[in-house]
Amino acid sequence: MLHPSIQAHIDDFYNSPLKMTGDSVLSHRGGSPRKEECELLANLLATMMPRATIDWGLGDGAVSMTIALAKRHAGLKEGHLTLDPFQKQIANDVGLIQLERCGLKAEVEFLAQRSDEFLMRARDQGRLFDFIFVDGDHSFGGKVTDAYLADYVLKAGGTICFHDSLFRSTAAAVRYLICERGYNIANINNQRLWFVLGRSIKHSLRLGAWYAYHVLPNLGYSISCLRKPLKAA
Prior knowledge:
Layout: H1 4-14, E1 18-20, E2 26-28, H2 35-48, E3 53-56, H3 62-74, E4 80-83, H4 94-101, E5 108-111, H5 115-125, E6 129-134, H6 140-153, E7 154-162, H7 168-181, E8 184-185, H8 193-207, H9 209-214, E9 224-227
Parallel strand pairs: 3-4, 3-6, 4-5, 6-7
Antiparallel strand pairs: 1-2, 7-9, 8-9
Helix pairs in contact: 1-2, 1-3, 2-3, 5-6, 6-7
């Protein structure tokens, strides 16, 4: 069960689909994880207690807000890092405005950078993270590149979560990390057995039998959660 202060912020965020933008107009919230997924994410972070955290695809700020709130409640002083090269041009700063509205802007470092550019630089600098949340470019090239580069900057034993794990591009990225890098998928499913079975059958032809059997039953809604092995694969 979530701490009341975290739950209150998430409830408030999802009470309205309209969010204030940089032009001081209301914009329809879209593209972010659903409310239940943010609640699931907050509970996961409460057990993991990650210090160095990053996500990309800031969008309307739902994920960054959730991560920052979970770290604040856990007493983790290290700030959260979020990337979004299109936050101003496309999102019109709505995510940054939401973080400020929640009193979290000082606890979240924002960089208007592409994930691949940042990750290559972080790899060269030896910068490492305990937790990564991926929700950016959904193309095959973008998603697999994100997985490939994220592997370099995720600490041994660290965790990476992917949103939209029913997308073919995400499935390819998840399969790469499991099959070629030795990652283990965590079972974060909290839905009924009949739903899990139905979803696996429904998507088996589109995503493949292997993914339907090994990954889909472990999803938390559309979030997959993978742990990097302690030793390199």
